[in-house]
Amino acid sequence: MPRPTLDETPLEVLTPRRGFPTISEPPLRLRLDPEPDDAGRRWLHLHGEFDARAVELVCAAVDHVLRSGRDVVVDVGSVEFCDASAARALLACAHQAAAARRTIRVVNARPFQRRLLATLRVEEMVSVEGP
Fold this sequence. Notes:
Elements (H helix, E strand, L loop, with lengths): L10 H4 L13 E5 L9 E9 L4 H13 L4 E11 L1 H16 L4 E4 L3 H9 L7 E2 L3
Parallel strand pairs: 2-3, 3-4, 4-5
Antiparallel strand pairs: 1-2
Helix pairs in contact: 2-3
């Protein structure tokens, strides 16, 4: 018997039932340190998956810091997954920072993150440091 396509599947089949596990946690969480560090920079800590679903959130947080006149440090040490959209978002943030005459640094980047950022030439605009 062939499986129904999505268009043919009744809505009640797609709707989670009571007791059915659902994903309740967002793919990326971020925390902005409330106070600047000794150098006057604000730290943005990312946890989870930095992909297309999180781009708007990260860009908004970086924009918030830049509008306060501070440089930004993005800690990606707890990012388990990132893709090209994350790299493009960091590049867009770097352009925003340059326009505001501020800087953005990425710290605690693991080898896979560094390879991605180097391959997409983000390191030309953003300082990227390993753990």
